[in-house]
Amino acid sequence: MTPASARMDNPSLITVPVPLGERAYDILVGRGLIDTAGARIAALGARAAAIVTDEHVGPLYAAALTASLEAQGLRVSMITLPPGEATKSYASLERVCDAVLAARIERGDLVVALGGGVIGDLAGFAAAVVRRGVRFVQVPTTLLSQVDSSVGGKTGINSRYGKNLVGAFHQPSLVIADTALLDTLPIRERRAGYAEVVKYGLIDDERFFAWCEANWQGVFAGGPERDEAVAQSCRAKAAVVVRDEHETGDRALLNLGHTFGHALEKLTAYDSRRLVHGEGVAIGLSQAFRFSAFLGLCPPADAERVEVHLNAVGLPTRLSQVPGGCGTVDALLDAMAQDKKVKGGALTFILARGIGRSFIAPGIEADQVRTFLTGEISA
Amino acid sequence: MTPASARMDNPSLITVPVPLGERAYDILVGRGLIDTAGARIAALGARAAAIVTDEHVGPLYAAALTASLEAQGLRVSMITLPPGEATKSYASLERVCDAVLAARIERGDLVVALGGGVIGDLAGFAAAVVRRGVRFVQVPTTLLSQVDSSVGGKTGINSRYGKNLVGAFHQPSLVIADTALLDTLPIRERRAGYAEVVKYGLIDDERFFAWCEANWQGVFAGGPERDEAVAQSCRAKAAVVVRDEHETGDRALLNLGHTFGHALEKLTAYDSRRLVHGEGVAIGLSQAFRFSAFLGLCPPADAERVEVHLNAVGLPTRLSQVPGGCGTVDALLDAMAQDKKVKGGALTFILARGIGRSFIAPGIEADQVRTFLTGEISA
């Protein structure tokens, strides 16, 4: 490891501020940032840190992170959980909260989430409720968590009634996104995370989508394009979060592709061997544009362009690409309607008038969705 | 039951506003308010309500509350838990959250806490985290919860590492304190709640303390004095909470009597047969004033006056009054220091320069506390 003092001047470092008043924080993006994470985290002023990680990520990075925090004089403890979505449970919440309390973390101290979205969501939620709120730092280790879940303060666990149904809005004090960690990420996970990158272009930034079309190979290869893609995604998400921290309006735009995507995840029983979140989102993005075109809202050429790009990077875009199938139209519609009562009536979708021109569309009739899906399933 | 329209003009109704900006709410105090609770809660605009209660309180009031909410067109469900402090657990949190989700409570809907402090703290915490926050209403049924825990937004459960160590700041949308419900409260619980009433006078309102000395019998008997005592306590607490919602400063004054009190609860193993919270607080209030006098900060006559009044209503004031004893000076000191490292150094206490003149006193030497306690234990 290079000495912290030298590496603090990381030339590739991009800082994305999240200006949320007294909850403002920075997202740091760059290669090799984990080497100087100790100094950066210590600069927040804590005396102790509890690292929360999983059995995949911990063995790779936790020892170095612990050493760099201890070198700064922090008392460090570690909580290691099994990897996977099942870890976002009430039982894990109890385990993490009690471990954080056992580590004598006080209000001025820190919880450090070292891992992907599961660890970030769980550790962030524990930080939100231990002593009614201690600070926390996100060190996301997957592309998906670097561009999405580590930013914006949504934390939580799953309930038997659905994903992320129990949680808190709790902003991190710092996000450190080391893009070099993605070098060892399986290609399937890199692609899945990339679906969320593309999403930001599709929501309201046609130029960024065009940049993705031209630069995606650099993003996957780990060149400066990757840092730029992560940073731009964080900027886009931060802008939405600053406008609507608690999701009472605009923040719903971030769900572009997710109404379809969540339904597909549900119908594949959240079995990551069949479909991971980002793959569901990729199909969902394509479906949202195809549905918008079906409704006459969006030029078919734009829907085509979305699909071509997602396919180019190796992501699925059609219902028929769901391994094992996605069930019947009725099952899909059921899964999309959170409440059975909505079925006979109207649903809210995020639709688009074109690439970069998404909008919240309440009042979409279930019959229109049914007709569209019938065509898609047989396609 | 009188029709809601008539009873809404309850002549004995006292409204205490809690002006917390977008989290502002009212505390309603008066006899018989539970009869019109349905209309008042429905006025908040929800479509559904999940009542959380316990096996003692539920059978007394839940059916009437349910009926009055249903009469207003709300869909109502009920979750009934065992009574007692053990219910403030992770397991109960899971049970309440899942029941609230099963009841299809959405962000616009309500959780209604019907019970004492345990139910209010637990239901409030569940409301804070289900869907990252749904609204909730407190219907406190004990004097302690009417004057203390139902106001101010502190919610939570206990951990093996201590009480209330996991929770959230989540303000209720309405508090309905029906003082008639206290008529059937055992005298021991009425006395225990009264210790918190007296506390507000001791903190910063000598006139209210004098009013308590003159009117306590009316408070216990259930006359208009009771409504006034509850309302004045809520006003006092609300004023502190508005100044310092998240307890970064002044709110600590509300802990007057609680450093000693919590230590005594801990040393009696939270066994309510030996000591209930309010009894610990009564002894703690007296000890805080006696310690202030010992340090030369407070006139001994004021400490005497505190003790005389607490004894008059039947509350304990001395360490020797703890049934089964409170252990050694070292055990007491240990229990008071949250962190072993504090032992050799300084502690923070809430002390007083006289009745109504309390202040936060950091830097109290452990040796001074030891000398004081040695005298008290042998007294």
From TrEMBL, chains A, B:
Positions with a binding annotation for NAD(+): G117, V118, I119, G120, D121, T141, T142, K154, K163
Keywords in alphabetical order: Amino-acid biosynthesis, Aromatic amino acid biosynthesis, Cobalt, Cytoplasm, Lyase, Metal-binding, NAD, Nucleotide-binding, Zinc
An annotated Gene Ontology molecular function: 3-dehydroquinate synthase activity
Keyword NAD carried by entry: yes
Cofactor binding note: Binds 1 divalent metal cation per subunit. Can use either Co(2+) or Zn(2+).
Subcellular location: Cytoplasm
Biological process (GO), any one: amino acid biosynthetic process
Family: Belongs to the sugar phosphate cyclases superfamily. Dehydroquinate synthase family.
Name of the featured protein: 3-dehydroquinate synthase
Organism this protein belongs to: Microvirga lupini
Organismal lineage: Bacteria, Pseudomonadati, Pseudomonadota, Alphaproteobacteria, Hyphomicrobiales
